[in-house]
Amino acid sequence: MKKECWCEQAPKTPRPIAKVAVVLVSRRPPDLATWVKYHLDYAGVDHVFLQIEDTPEFQKLYDALSPARRSRITMWSEKDEAVTTSTANDGGKRPQDDYSTLQARQIATMSRARDLAEKEGIDWLVHIDDDELLYVPTHRKVGEVLAALPQTYRQAYVPNVEAVYKDAGVKNCFAETHEVNTNPYAFVSYANGKSAVRVGKSENEDLIPAGPHQWKSSMGLEVNSVHLDREPFGAPLLVVHFESCPFTRWEDKFWELGNTTPDKVKGIPFPFYRDSIARFQLCDRLKMSAGAKADAECSQESLQNLWASYKTRHNRLIRRQDVMPINIPWMSILAAQL
């Protein structure tokens, strides 16, 4: 008879977890408290480097966070940013044509966070926006996914997907979203993902942003990178993009982008952006015309239909097989104290 062994088994070796930080430029964030709770409490992000712009209510939002969460956020305003950009002589005001200047501010913020990350003992730095979430489909921590990458890789390309909303009445864009579009050919915005980059003293020596989506060497060369979308069972880490949500944020965003010149509008690669800018430019011209009657295209219903034609299942480019469910325990995340 085979004897059973009742001896104590050796405990499993815990998986290594890297220390991860995110960096972002934020202006009038739609739901900063939820964004912070998700990343710091649930996703396993260790630190946030934040440049805040033109958000009068931000201090109130920040003060409402618990001291423990505030201790994990390093923030500054655009007025504190020492790196000059093409708008440095505008008296500190936000540029009118935001589409063509945002990237310059993001690059400056990424460079500053790269230098600050060493002081926080950060292993990996990821640039995302205030309408994006780092999402691990297997519900592991972000640091666990990145710690599993071989040391030879200095950069990991993280694929992005886009939130698909029920309708234009969505209010809490994060918590009310239950599915995403995985087909980059049907995205309304960028489709080249974001990147996580190794940081630290030795890694920082020749590392500079190559735009808001990736990094390169100071000589302009690519660094050794891995694409996380090539795993056999799907990407282990995603950036979920909640573009232009809620509807009121889309209205504010593209009304302001109406300042973009026609030549620059033609150069924008996204039909959603071009159509949105064109619609608000039309409505603005009609509004300014003396004695002009209200145009049907500028009604609230018409604007919502335009938004829904890109951001919901009404988008004819989104096929059934493109849609993937996402599962985030929002009830427990939101139940946590600020």
Which architecture name of the largest domain does CATH use? Alpha-Beta Complex
Number of β-strand runs: 14
Computed Rg:
22 Å
Shape: globular
**Helix-strand pattern, N to C?**
EHEHHEHEEHEEEEHEEEEHHHHEH
Structural class: alpha/beta
User: Which stretches of 5+ consecutive residues score pLDDT under 50?
Assistant: 83-95
Q: Give the strand order, joined by hyphens, for the main sheet.
A: 3-2-1-4-9-6-12
CATH class category name of the largest domain:
Alpha Beta
Explain briefly what this protein structure is.
The protein is α/β, with parallel strands linked by helices and 338 residues long. The protein has helices at residues 32-43, 58-64, 67-70, 102-117, 142-147, 201-204, 247-256, 262-267, 271-288, 300-311, 330-335, and strands at residues 20-27, 47-53, 73-77, 124-127, 132-135, 155-158, 160-164, 179-181, 194-198, 207-209, 215-217, 225-227, 238-241, 323-325.
